[in-house]
C-alpha cells in the first residue's frame, strides 16, 4: 500500500477513507492488532471463537491474468453494515466494536455510526452479549462499555444532548479491561465477572 | 467488473479465483442471493440477525485522489478463515456455509476446505448451531446438512474414503429446506423443528 507521497506502509493499514486520519496517525491499528492477538489466543486455547470481519469492499474491476491469481484493479471501501467483531463464547453470541480515541476526557460519539447502533440493538434484542471496546490511547486505558449504556447516550445525542460519553461515565458504567501476556485486551475476563 | 473479454458483469459476481468457475457459469450466485434475501427478511421481521461476511481481500495499493473516495488499485482475494455466514437466533450462535452443486447424485467435498472444517468444529465445540446449506441446482432442492455429519464424511475422506456425500445421505441425515415467499431458503424453520 502506498500513500500519495509514495511512502510504503503495511497493507494492514488499509482502511476505509473515513478512517484515513486513523491510518496517517497510526491510531486504531494498535487496538485492532491487540484484539486480533487476543482473539488468536482465545481460539488457540479453545476459550472462544471470535473473528474480525473482513473490511467490506465494492469490487468494480477484476483482471484474470493467465496462470496467475485474479487481481482486483478497482474497488472501493464500503461502510460496514455490522460491527467489526463477532463470535461465540460459552454458547453465547458475542458482538462488539472496538474504537480508540486520543481524547483524554471523553469518548466522542462520532466514532460510531447509526447503522452500527441499529445492528447492536438488533443483536441485543436477540440475547447477544454486545459492547464497545474503547481505548483511551493517551491514558493507555481500555474499557469494556456495554451496548445498553451506549444506546442511552446515543438517544440523548439525537435529542440534542452531548456528543460524547464522559470518561467518568465510561469508568462508572463500564469496566477496565485487564492486560495480560498474550491477552492484551482480555475482554472475556470482564464478561466472566460481570455478564455471565 | 469485466471479464477478460471485456464483457461487463454485475459487481456482485466478484468472487475469489477459486470460485471462478462459479462466476462464469453463474452457479452459486442464486443460492447466495436467495440466502441474502432470506436474511434480510429475517432481520426486517426481527426473527434473527444473520449476515454474510464480506469477501476477504488483501489490499496492496490504495490511491487517495483529492476530493474523492479512496480507490483500491491492487488487491487480491484471500481465502476466508471462517464460514461465510453467522449471527444470532433465539440467543443461539448460528454459523453456516452455503454451497451449490450441479452434481445430481452427491455433494463433492472439494467444495469445502480444511480451514472451514476446523472453524466449524471449533464453533460446534462452543455450542453453535452449525451446518451446511447445500443446493442441488439441477434438482432444485436445497438441504440443511448438520456440521456434525459433515465431519464424519470429512474424516472418512482423509482416511481414503469417498470424496463426496451421497444425495441419499444428505436426504437421510439432513433436512430439505422449504421455499417460501420472501424466504427462499427458510433454514430457521428447520432449526425450529429439529435443532432447538
From TrEMBL, chains A, B:
Its EC number is 3.1.21.10. It is found in: Cytoplasm. Transmembrane segments: none annotated. GO terms for molecular function: crossover junction DNA endonuclease activity; magnesium ion binding; nucleic acid binding. Mg(2+) binds at residues 82, 84, 97, 116. GO terms for cellular component: cytoplasm. Gene3D superfamilies: 3.40.1350.10. The record marks 99 as: Transition state stabilizer. Binds 1 Mg(2+) ion per subunit. It catalyses: Endonucleolytic cleavage at a junction such as a reciprocal single-stranded crossover between two homologous DNA duplexes (Holliday junction). It is an enzyme of class 3 (hydrolase). InterPro entries: Resolv_RecU, Restrct_endonuc-II-like, tRNA_endonuc-like_dom_sf. GO terms for biological process: chromosome segregation; DNA recombination; DNA repair. Its cofactor is Mg(2+). It comes from the Bacteria. Keywords: Cytoplasm, DNA damage, DNA recombination, DNA repair, Endonuclease, Hydrolase, Magnesium, Metal-binding, Nuclease. It holds the Pfam family RecU. Endonuclease that resolves Holliday junction intermediates in genetic recombination. Cleaves mobile four-strand junctions by introducing symmetrical nicks in paired strands. Promotes annealing of linear ssDNA with homologous dsDNA. Required for DNA repair, homologous recombination and chromosome segregation. Belongs to the RecU family. This is Holliday junction resolvase RecU. The lineage of its organism: Bacteria, Bacillati, Bacillota, Bacilli, Bacillales. The gene is recU.
Amino acid at each position: 500500500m502506498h500513500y500519495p507521497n509514495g511512502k510504503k506502509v503495511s497493507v494492514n493499514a488499509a482502511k476505509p477513507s473515513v478512517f484515513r486520519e486513523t491510518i496517517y496517525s497510526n491510531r486504531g491499528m494498535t487496538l485492532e492488532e491487540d484484539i486480533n492477538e487476543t482473539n488468536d489466543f482465545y481460539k488457540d486455547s479453545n476459550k472462544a471463537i471470535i473473528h474480525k470481519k473482513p473490511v467490506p469492499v465494492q469490487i468494480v474491476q477484476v483482471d484474470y491474468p493467465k496462470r496467475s491469481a485474479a487481481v482486483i484493479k478497482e474497488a472501493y471501501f464500503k461502510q460496514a453494515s455490522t460491527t467489526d467483531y463477532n463470535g461465540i463464547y460459552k454458547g453465547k453470541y458475542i458482538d462488539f466494536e472496538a474504537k480508540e480515541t486520543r481524547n483524554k476526557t471523553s469518548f466522542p460519539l462520532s466514532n460510531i455510526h447509526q447503522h452500527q447502533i441499529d445492528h447492536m440493538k438488533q443483536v441485543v434484542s436477540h440475547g447477544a452479549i454486545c459492547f464497545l471496546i474503547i481505548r483511551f490511547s493517551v491514558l493507555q486505558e481500555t474499557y469494556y462499555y456495554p451496548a445498553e449504556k451506549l444506546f442511552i447516550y446515543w438517544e440523548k445525542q439525537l435529542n440534542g444532548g452531548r456528543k460524547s460519553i464522559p470518561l467518568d461515565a465510561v469508568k462508572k458504567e463500564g469496566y477496565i479491561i485487564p492486560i495480560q501476556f498474550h491477552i492484551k485486551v482480555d475482554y472475556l475476563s470482564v464478561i466472566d465477572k460481570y455478564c455471565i
